[in-house]
Amino acid sequence: MTQLLQLFANPLVYLLVALIAILTFIALNGLILVYVERKVAGFIQRRPGPFEVGPHGLLQPLADALKLVGKQLVVPRDADRILFWAAPLLSFAPVAVCLLPIPFGPHLVGLNVNLGVLLVLAFSGLNVLALCLAGWGSNNKYALLGAARAVAQSVAYEIPLLLSVLCVAFTSGSLNFAEITASQTHGLLSWNVFTQPVAFLIFFVSALAETNRAPFDLPEAESELTAGFHTEYSGMGFGLFFLAEYSYMIVVCAVASVLFLGGWSGPFLSGHWWMLGKIYALILAMMWFRWTYPRVRFDQLLNLCWKWLIPLSLINLMATALIINLVR
Amino acid sequence: MDLHSMIHPAYGLYLALIVGGGVVAVFARSLVRALSGLIVTLFGVAGMYLLMAAPFLAFMQILIYVGAVTVLIFFAIMLTRSSDGESGTEGGRIGRGFLAIWAAVFSTLVLAAVVVRHMPNAIPLKPEVSMGRLGEFLTGPFALSFELISAVLFVAMAGAVLLGFERRIAK
Questions:
Q1: B1-84 has which CATH code?
Q2: Of A208, A234, A240, B150, which is least packed with CB atoms within 10 Å of its CB?
């Protein structure tokens, strides 16, 4: 037993165990979210949603996953084979790194680094690149249009996202997720959502755009672009993109709960239950938005970012800096 | 096996990433493949920063260069590409190859001579500089260079906007 504990104290082994745990969490989460999303969509549209496979359709995601794994992988003619298959891998791989520095409980963290926030922001930016490669490698005009939209959208929305994160970094004076959480453990009113409400709104809207969720799902836009950047992907190529989208939802919601909603802090229950509860509450809100709002037009999308979110986040940042200087 | 025993394999891995990515970037026929090579190289450089105990630089490298600059290059390729996405210059291959080999050998020889003649001592690795200290340095002793870089970036941005406006009026 002590030998096992010693082995676990080795940082490399610890990291490996954390990565495996995170990948398991991601896979389970993918299954759950597919079911939840279809049920939520069903309830909002006053229909039962999946109902046939298993009690209340509970086994539907398993059937879906098996179907995806069993499908043939097709590469379109004249497509760039290497880039075509590199894209879904590149889309999915950074997710595990993004979840490493996030504290799911007081001691439940994969990798406690001082620049955790920066690590997550850096690696989540790789998703755009994957979408570009997918769109270009497919040799398909719908895919290419989707990739072009993804670039314009992500580059634009990264700016307000970073600026709103910077506001939180200013107030808590750290880029370490554990320290940011610790600064919000003094009761409900110490949560950053109350000291930085504008930053929270900007962060959440930008995060919706960065994860390509409706109403900002223009790179996919199934009614205009067939399926956008993943038009040509079949089987698990599509499955990986799908899993990556749900995993990025987890990542942005986890970051939002740590930065603005106090992370694992909360009364009565242990930390990880609070953290999971906050993450899934935010994800349900994201699904609610998806089935409530129509998709925005492309000019509306960019106008919202450049004319409203970026100036607003700059003003918010300056006001934060001014107040911090006055208080100190 | 602890973290310190991983330094040499990690160094080798990052070096392989840098060199391999560079080779792909130079020899790839398609521009987008060359760009992927560049991305791999940038990742290797980020890893080198990590080894030098500068994680801030490493993450910034990934955030800015991999996440933003290469995406902009990709956008430029997509908007300007020819029908097959390749830009090859034909003719004079043998002469070019000879010149390329000569350039590589010459620069390698010069660098090797300098390194052998003036072997640098290994520098002890400094501990990680905290973000606060970094900020103090950038706004204190290095404030002028910091501001100069901002001015250069601002001029570039203003120039881009100006060019965009002129083209719109010309239409």
A1: 1.20.120.1200
A2: B150
